[in-house]
Each structure stands twice: as structure tokens, then as C-alpha cells.
Specification:
The chain is of the alpha/beta class. The protein contains 4 helices and 5 strands; from the N terminus they run βαβαβαβαβ. The chain starts with a strand and ends with a strand.
């Protein structure tokens, strides 16, 4: 069971929500909390390999996402959101698990705290 379920709904390069979600996930896992980072809606675009942030004015978050995975953050991407945004499983950063809406509901229900970005 995760102590914190962090849900990212926004795409990574339109505002600071994705950067903040990743930053908070890294901070929580560093503080020895169990963290589930759940990507839904536009948030699944964070899971895409080879992100192009050219001209956005935002920092590329792919490396930070990989740091989350390396440090033990469990990262999940909503299957329907991946399909809707045309992100194929082979285009997703290794270590991210595609899950159903029902599985996401279970993760959120089991978490002690939920934070939405």
C-alpha cells in the first residue's frame, strides 16, 4: 500500500503541474514514504520516451521521471488515456505500468493520502 497516491492529470509542458508532481514524488520517496505516481488524461504524456520540449520554455522531465522509478516510486499510466493520446506501450518509459481505471481506483482507495496535480 502506498502512503501517497499522486495523480497527474496535466500534460508535462503546459504548466508546472507535471514538474511539481515529479518533484513531490522524489521528495516523498527520499523521505522514505511509499509513493504511487498515477498518470491520467494529459499526464500520460509524461510517460512518453524521447520527449521533445523544444520551444516550450519548460525543463525536460523524462530524466526526472526515470529518477523517480530508480528511487522506488511506482509509476502507473492509465491505459485509456494512453490510447486516447496515441501513446503506444513501446513508446512508454521502461518501468511504467499501464493499468485500467479499475486498478487506478484501487490504488487511490488503498493510499493513505491522495494529491492531485
Amino acid at each position: 500500500m502506498a502512503a501517497i497516491a499522486m495523480i497527474l492529470k496535466r500534460s508535462p509542458y503546459g504548466d508546472i503541474n507535471a514538474a511539481e508532481a515529479v518533484r513531490h514524488a522524489l521528495g516523498a520517496v527520499t523521505g522514505e514514504l511509499n509513493v504511487d505516481l498515477i498518470l491520467v488524461d494529459g499526464g500520460v504524456l509524461l510517460a512518453k520516451k524521447g520527449q521533445d520540449d523544444t520551444g516550450t520554455g519548460f525543463t525536460n522531465l523524462e530524466g526526472a521521471l526515470k529518477d523517480c522509478l530508480d528511487m522506488g516510486v511506482a509509476v502507473y499510466a492509465d491505459e485509456l488515456s494512453l490510447k486516447t493520446r496515441r501513446v503506444a506501450q513501446e513508446d512508454v518509459v521502461e518501468g511504467i505500468k499501464a493499468v485500467s481505471g479499475k486498478e487506478i481506483a484501487g490504488l487511490v482507495q488503498e493510499a493513505k493520502t491522495t494529491v492531485i496535480f
